[in-house]
């Protein structure tokens, strides 16, 4: 083989030819048969999706043209723009190539089409009617051709126009840009075919003048976004002509409708076009094929299911009597746009999408362009549901076309700009792939090819350089579309808005005021002013708030203080007015808007936290973001703050801000029922540990600079509820300071270090302080703020009272040198876990407890409502458990814990408490802890240790605690739990006989 031949063969392969030897033979045969010689075959073939098939089809066309005596038009267009259009058709569609082989004279069309004439400006209706000898200007055109002759003429005319659409589409360098125009042209062509079919039906029906029949296009045909090969969904509607009998007219219309469909889909000399599907009509296959207007209206008003209104969204007259068609659409539009108010409409639409997915064969799911996850249906169902829910109040959304509706949703703020752009491009690309696959054999398919050669042809046909790149885009589109579908289609706001009246959804002033008052707003006029302020203007933000507020009003109303919640939302919205993420999150998130409304109308504590830092609203979008952070994670961030900053004020402010932020996260999760009060207490304790450890590092640096030498090692020991990891949101930190080392001035330096540390934590500033209470140190307020290690250990060994040994049960080093922490724990163990609790010590403990109950309760407070000091409250449980620890922890290692619940569990397991008593104490302690946490979250003025009397406020606490109780039921539950716990305390702690007070 010569070098020139090798070079030509290589060029052909580079142009996409698979079998270059056969291709060269075909080129020679084309030259022999038709005298056609390409100027540069490799360049010409590079535009063919399948050059091997294209060359074979061209040879067949040449032979057919030769036999028909029409070779000259074919020769004339080779190596011209018209020839390029012919080539892309032959290489892109075997079926259209076969059509040309059957009708070679139609090659002339390729040179007669004006290159710059838009597809949608061609009057295809007129051309198909003329093909069957009907007058396009007539109100009811009647064909002069009949039978198979008329059907063949219509189908040939249809495919001539289809050739033009396909050639324009395939030669296009930007197929996704042209895709909507192609879909519209195909829909118009389908309507024209049915119009011609009706003209043929009239020619065969002597009584056609008795009826006025309209054909309504549904689905993609109605939306003018049809595929090359797709069922054409239709509904038939007919009215009698003036003076005609109703039943006779209906019988004629039924025969004509069936005949028009057969003209398109029955087998004949020229192959069928596509299936005409009338199963979307009332009652489906079991219903009458043709109904009058009144019958359609009666059905949709009384019997139609939700999905049928979704189908009607795209209804459009496509053939027949235009007045009847327009009356049909106009008559049903109000029902379509009010359908979303039907009970369970949104849920039914979501269930239908799930059913469609479930019916996709498993072996096809990853290749389904239409029905699979991330496919066309995900886009279409998402857009249609958003349209139907919001379009009731917003008429700008009432569009048939998917992309037009998507643009309207974007303009109205219902879909974000990036998401709309991504969905638009994905939809266009998916449709281009679908079109290219269907064009090849004019077959109805929606599957990505399984075979490598078929994927190669598809890649070339749709403008991709390689199969690998096409598949990468395919997988990326599926992933992105699926994510957007799940985010938008299952928005919690949709069923809420769907249930509202049109006036409520539009926030009409009268309807909104009435609804505000009805759902529980105390000042409906003030609430309406907030709504007006939030939705005033034509900005995108105002539009999004217009969507959100109808649903959020209901969510605010579910909280105890909807007025306060709405006011806080307005304040937060104004604060974050320039933050695009805020409204986007509320609109698109599955839970953020509802969670925010619940928090703002329920918890004053969380509301203040969110208003102090609106960025925290971001957490509400996912459960993961609301999970309390572990101490290790907190300390990693704190350590980074300390390493970055040399400025003590800046560092401690950042550390306190970190604690405020994390306490807000915990409080939000607690209010929303994602964690219980015990878990919240542990998380709040972690934030205090982190802050104190960080503040100790800062204080040590400051004192070092101040005294010119290394200060003593300072150990911070958590005491009380802080030591037990049971802190509340409003708790002080009970601590004592222990130091070691530092030379002659160690005491003075340690005192200074403790003072500086406390000052850093308590100083009023930009971030909330942490109050330090050191009254539980040796000698209490009379003792030194910081005490040496040896002095502390010596004091507890020689001088401490029994109550101080009891206090040590909760001593937990929380900051300072790890070795010093361990030594401290070991040193105080003999004191807090004595081998024997003396009778004197026990008697002193009991006297102290009794005195506390009589002296420390606030004046005017019913003792039974005091959660901490009242009978059966936290103190009763904790002192009972602590007594067991003092009595038994020297031999029961499990009791050596600072945490009440943990010690109680061990006491039960070891038989120190019977199961019933342990359960009683556990229930009372947990309930009191939960109530204290809920009261703190409410953030209202008053003592967080006192159970409210107001039944409504008790109901709010029950909701925060995630129980279904009424206020009185919660009150009764606490009273019973406390009464039983007190009885156990009297026996276990006070040693009273059962039944005696």
From TrEMBL:
Gene Ontology CC annotation, any one:
cytosol
- Ranges for the Glutamate-ammonia ligase adenylyltransferase repeated domain? 85-327, 594-825
Gene Ontology MF term list: [glutamate-ammonia-ligase] adenylyltransferase activity; [glutamine synthetase]-adenylyl-L-tyrosine phosphorylase activity; ATP binding
Which keywords belong to this entry?
A: ATP-binding, Magnesium, Multifunctional enzyme, Nucleotide-binding, Nucleotidyltransferase, Transferase
Question: PII-uridylyltransferase/Glutamine-synthetase adenylyltransferase domain: which residues?
Answer: 350-488, 861-989
Q: Which GO terms describe its biological process?
A: regulation of glutamine family amino acid metabolic process
Q: What class of enzyme is it?
A: transferase
Please provide an example of a Pfam family that matches this protein in its UniProt record.
GlnD_UR_UTase
EC code(s) of this entry: 2.7.7.42, 2.7.7.89
Q: Which InterPro entries match?
A: GlnE, GlnE_rpt_dom, NT_sf, PII_UdlTrfase/GS_AdlTrfase
Q: Which PANTHER family match?
A: BIFUNCTIONAL GLUTAMINE SYNTHETASE ADENYLYLTRANSFERASE_ADENYLYL-REMOVING ENZYME, GLUTAMINE SYNTHETASE ADENYLYLTRANSFERASE
Instruction: List the protein's name.
Output: Bifunctional [glutamine synthetase] adenylyltransferase/[glutamine synthetase]-adenylyl-L-tyrosine phosphorylase
Q: Which organism is it from?
A: Demequina capsici
The taxonomic lineage of its organism, from the top, reads: Bacteria, Bacillati, Actinomycetota, Actinomycetes, Micrococcales
């Amino acid at each position: 083989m010569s070098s020139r031949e090798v070079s030509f063969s290589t060029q052909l392969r580079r142009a996409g030819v698979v079998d270059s030897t056969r291709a060269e033979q075909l080129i020679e045969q084309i030259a022999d048969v038709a005298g056609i010689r390409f100027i540069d075959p490799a360049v010409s073939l590079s535009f063919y999706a399948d050059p091997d098939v294209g060359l074979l089809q061209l040879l067949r066309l040449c032979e057919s043209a030769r036999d028909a005596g029409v070779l000259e038009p074919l020769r004339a267009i080779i190596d011209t723009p018209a020839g390029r259009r012919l080539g892309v058709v032959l290489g892109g569609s075997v079926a259209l190539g076969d059509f040309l082989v059957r009708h070679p004279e139609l090659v002339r069309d390729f040179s007669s089409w004006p290159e710059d004439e838009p597809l949608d400006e061609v009057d295809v209706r007129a051309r198909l009617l003329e093909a069957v000898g009907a007058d396009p200007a007539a109100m009811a055109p009647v064909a002069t051709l009949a039978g198979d002759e008329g059907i063949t003429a219509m189908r040939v005319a249809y495919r001539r126009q289809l050739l033009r659409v396909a050639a324009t589409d395939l030669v296009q360098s930007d197929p996704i840009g042209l895709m909507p125009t192609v879909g519209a042209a195909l829909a118009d062509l389908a309507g024209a075919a049915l119009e011609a079919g009706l003209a043929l039906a009239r020619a065969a029906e002597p009584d056609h003048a008795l009826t006025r029949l309209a054909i309504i296009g549904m689905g993609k045909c109605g939306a003018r976004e049809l595929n090359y090969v797709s069922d054409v969904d239709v509904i038939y509607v007919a009215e009698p002509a003036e003076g005609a009998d109703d039943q006779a007219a209906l019988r004629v219309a039924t025969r004509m409708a069936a005949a028009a469909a057969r003209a398109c889909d029955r087998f004949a000399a020229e192959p069928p076009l596509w299936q005409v599907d009338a199963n979307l009509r009332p009652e489906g296959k079991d219903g009458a094929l043709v109904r009058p207007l009144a019958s359609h209206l009666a059905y949709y008003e009384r019997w139609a299911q939700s999905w049928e209104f979704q189908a009607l969204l795209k209804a459009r007259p496509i053939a027949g009597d235009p007045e009847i068609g327009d009356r049909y659409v106009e008559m049903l539009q109000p029902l379509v746009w009010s359908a979303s108010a039907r009970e369970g409409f949104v849920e039914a639409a979501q269930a239908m999408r799930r059913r469609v997915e479930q019916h996709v064969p498993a072996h096809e799911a990853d290749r389904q362009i239409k029905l699979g996850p991330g496919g066309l249906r995900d886009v279409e169902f998402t857009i249609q549901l958003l349209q139907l829910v919001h379009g009731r109040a917003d008429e700008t959304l009432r569009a048939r076309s998917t992309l037009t509706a998507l643009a309207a949703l974007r303009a109205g703020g219902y879909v974000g700009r990036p998401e709309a752009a991504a969905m638009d491009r994905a939809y266009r690309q998916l449709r281009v792939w679908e079109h290219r696959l269907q064009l090849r054999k004019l077959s109805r398919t929606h599957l990505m090819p399984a075979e490598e050669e078929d994927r190669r042809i598809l890649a070339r046909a749709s403008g991709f350089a390689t199969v690998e790149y096409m598949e990468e885009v395919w997988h990326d589109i599926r992933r992105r579309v699926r994510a957007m579908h799940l985010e938008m289609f299952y928005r919690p706001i949709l069923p809420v808005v769907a249930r509202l009246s049109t006036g409520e959804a539009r926030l009409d002033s009268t309807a909104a005021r009435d609804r505000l008052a009805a759902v529980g707003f105390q000042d409906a006029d003030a609430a309406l002013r907030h709504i007006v302020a939030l939705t005033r203007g034509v900005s995108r933000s105002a539009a999004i708030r217009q969507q959100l507020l109808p649903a959020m009003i209901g969510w605010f109303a579910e909280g105890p203080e909807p007025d306060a919640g709405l006011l806080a939302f307005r304040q937060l919205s104004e604060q974050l007015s320039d933050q695009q993420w805020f409204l986007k999150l509320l609109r698109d998130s599955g839970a953020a808007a509802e969670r925010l409304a619940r928090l703002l109308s329920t918890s004053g504590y969380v509301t203040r936290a969110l208003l102090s830092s609106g960025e925290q609203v971001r957490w509400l979008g996912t459960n993961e973001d609301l999970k309390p952070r572990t101490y290790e994670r907190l300390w990693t961030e704190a350590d980074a703050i300390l390493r970055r900053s040399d400025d003590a004020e800046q560092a401690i402010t950042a550390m306190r801000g970190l604690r405020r932020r994390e306490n807000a996260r915990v409080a939000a999760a607690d209010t929303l029922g994602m964690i219980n009060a015990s878990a919240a207490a542990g998380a709040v304790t972690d934030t205090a540990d982190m802050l104190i450890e960080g503040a100790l590092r800062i204080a040590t640096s400051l004192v070092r600079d101040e005294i010119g030498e290394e200060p003593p090692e300072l150990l911070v020991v958590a005491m009380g509820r802080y030591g037990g990891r049971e802190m509340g949101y409003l708790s002080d930190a009970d601590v004592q300071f222990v130091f070691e080392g530092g030379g002659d001035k160690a005491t003075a330096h340690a005192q200074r270090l403790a003072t500086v540390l406390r000052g850093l934590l308590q100083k009023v500033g930009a971030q909330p302080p942490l109050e330090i209470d050191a009254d539980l140190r040796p000698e209490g307020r009379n003792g030194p703020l910081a005490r040496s290690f040896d002095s502390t250990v010596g004091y507890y060994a020689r001088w401490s009272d029994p109550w101080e040994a009891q206090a040590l049960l909760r001593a937990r080093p929380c900051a300072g040198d790890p070795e010093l922490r361990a030594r401290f724990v070991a040193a105080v163990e003999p004191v807090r876990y004595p081998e024997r609790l003396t009778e004197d010590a026990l008697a002193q403990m009991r006297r102290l407890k009794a005195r506390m109950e009589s002296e420390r309760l606030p004046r005017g407070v019913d003792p039974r409502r005091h959660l901490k000091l009242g009978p059966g409250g936290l103190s009763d449980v904790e002192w009972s458990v602590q007594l067991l620890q003092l009595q038994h922890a020297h031999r029961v290692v499990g009791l050596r814990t600072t945490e009440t619940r943990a010690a109680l569990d061990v006491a039960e397991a070891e038989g120190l408490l019977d199961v019933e008593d342990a359960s009683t104490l556990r229930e009372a302690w947990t309930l009191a802890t939960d109530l204290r946490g809920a009261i703190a979250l409410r953030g209202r003025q008053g003592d967080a240790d006192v159970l409210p009397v107001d039944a409504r406020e008790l109901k709010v606490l029950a909701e925060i605690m995630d129980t279904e109780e009424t206020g009185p039921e919660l009150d009764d539950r606490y009273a019973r739990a406390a009464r039983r716990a007190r009885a156990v305390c009297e026996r276990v702690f006070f040693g009273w006989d059962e039944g005696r007070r």
